[in-house]
Amino acid sequence: MARRRPLKLEVALGPEVLAGVSLSLSGPFRLQAEQALNGLRLWVDYVTGAGGLPLGLAGSRPPLRLLILDDRSRTSLAKENVLRFLTQDHVDLLIGPYSSGLTLAVAPLAEAHGKILWNHGGASDAIFQGSWRHLVSVPSPASDYLKALPLLVRSQDPSVARISVVYAKTGSFAAHVARGVADGAKAAGFDVIRLIPFDSPIRDARALLREALAVGPGLLVGAGSFQDDVVIVKRLDLASRVKTMAFVGAGLEAFYGEVGALAEGVIGPSQWEPAAHDGPLTGPDSEMVLLGVSHEISPEAGVPRRPGLRDRDRGRRVPSTGRKLGR
């Protein structure tokens, strides 16, 4: 068998480091992509304030410039944007789009051009199971998003032994979330595990909930598009007897703005908490990130609003076994 050459991570040393990102600044993924863009802009601001991006052993610090193109949540445009970055702009750093579908669409382009694709927004297990040599993923796999939740719920209330999981048929992300929850429920000793796929966008949330509630679950989990999760939560008057509820969409700050007080107590996945992990080896620490989000992103001065997470007093979050929220 021929030996594979080691993968080299190289950035051309020029007058500046050029980074390109295709994001869904319009279309169904707009909310998530805007939060990703907020994080990238904080990164650029941090690098600029630090005197440039440190490269190589010589300690060179060239300035960083970010190119942003809107893919409108469409696969064809995401591929077109990435090809432009690779063949016209000749970016030094290629940052992936939001969503698993768009990430899977552009990954072969990066692979063909030998350019590392830094994946921050695609979490489907299909991405991690691929044989990519030029893809580095930051998010945890979708199957890990809420996998630990059933055990947490049972440790707090052993009487909870039935779970229903509703998930969108579209793509592979939601199905992998559901599979991870089911695996976690089985390991936690749940007696009844009900998986219910639905067509997205949801046509009849009440009918879906009636089916999910038929087994009398103590834990209800939802994984659809952000819009799907919002529609379901707005019908939770039917689920008054469910002790614990979790929805992937609850991890977005916009969730509270959409459902208001109904967000109280709904659990959402979180892949970053200021005090949950050790400090970074390089880059800003948690305090600096919170300060940057509060001053530069939040419309409410002085109120920390972390990208991808709700405020502490607006619900509960469960850290996933990963790093950053993606889909």
Regions with pLDDT < 50 over 5+ consecutive residues? 1-12, 299-315, 321-325
Give the overall form.
elongated
Biggest sheet, spatial arrangement of strands: 2-1-3-4-5
Structural class: alpha/beta
Estimate percent helicity: 25-40%
Q: What is the name of the CATH architecture of the largest domain? A: 3-Layer(aba) Sandwich
CATH topology of the largest domain: Rossmann fold
Terminal Cα span: 36 Å
Kindly estimate the percentage of residues that lie in beta strands according to DSSP. 15-25%
Q: Give the radius of gyration.
A: 21 Å
For the record, the CATH class of the largest domain is Alpha Beta
List the helices and strands and how they pair.
Layout (H helix, E strand, L loop, with lengths): L16 E7 L6 H20 L14 E7 L4 H15 L3 E3 L4 H13 L4 E3 L5 H4 L6 E3 L11 H8 L5 E7 L4 H15 L4 E7 L6 H9 L5 E5 L2 H8 L10 E4 L6 H6 L7 E4 L15 H11 L19 E4 L8
Parallel strand pairs: 1-2, 1-3, 3-4, 4-5, 6-7, 6-8, 8-9, 10-11
Helix pairs in contact: 2-3
